[in-house]
């Protein structure tokens, strides 16, 4: 039987954080979780857009318990401030959805000087997840869902030197590398929490091709000539609520063990289930290397990570 949001369990008593929840797949996921009685924190870089997103949820789901908090994944100080705020304010967090993303913009850097796609899509979420680990562990079991993309298959292997900014910037190569990094991180996190016996599951999802603002905000931003192309391309995409199903399945389907990759069973579109990612994404050495580099680039040192884990 096809999996739809009607099959989502009650999320009563749980708290979920969704990054990039003001639009697209993140907004759909936040709304569906709120409809199932989760308390949902919309983690957004622009508070006005966040409040508008919250009001749009409330207009459809009057009982929704939704809060808006500022998180700019392209600034590690903002990530740290967000994590400290959540840690201080929330007793527990049961679900972290690492959804926010940018695709193929012109060359830009994060506040700390990393290429924007790698910095936002991977490093920001890496730092956020590690800083939230103690809070994620304080419940009876938590999930971290990281949203990747079929585009990860365009990266035949992780290229750390490219991600560090050596070599000419190629916007799609960077996007593909950042989405491969999402998967390597997902699987490495699962191995690490499993080794430590922590009550966390780490899984990845991808939406297929869904009509959202991703094209407009990334490669077509500020280009009025090619923007109509984005609108045209989106006509071939599935609606954003369908695009959110793999994320919601990864977040709530009871029979998952961690380390799964969830996507539309039809590839670009359709209902979700467990799918396979590229061979490169299962490369354990690359995942460990990425982990070490990510600790360094996100200003979390090894002692911090061990202290975070030991606190749990
Ligand atoms: N749509 C697809 O077909 C597709 C396919 C494969 C993968 N994906 C993945 O799905 C995820 C969601 O994208 P979407 O399609 O829903 O696109 P979207 O509507 O453009 O949503 C992206 C979200 O990320 C937020 N964001 C961007 N940079 C951020 C930052 N520095 N800090 C915090 N938030 C930031 C955006 O905020 P603003 O509104 O403030 O810009 C927006 O809320 C992404 O990870 C994307 O790579 C999408």
UniProtKB/TrEMBL annotation:
Recorded GO MF terms: oxidoreductase activity
InterPro entries: NAD(P)-bd_dom_sf (IPR036291), SDR_fam (IPR002347)
TM stretches of this protein: none
Keyword Oxidoreductase applies: yes
Entry keywords, A to Z: Oxidoreductase
Pfam family, one: adh_short
Family: Belongs to the short-chain dehydrogenases/reductases (SDR) family.
The name this protein goes by in its record: NAD(P)-dependent dehydrogenase (Short-subunit alcohol dehydrogenase family)
Species of the source: Alicyclobacillus sacchari
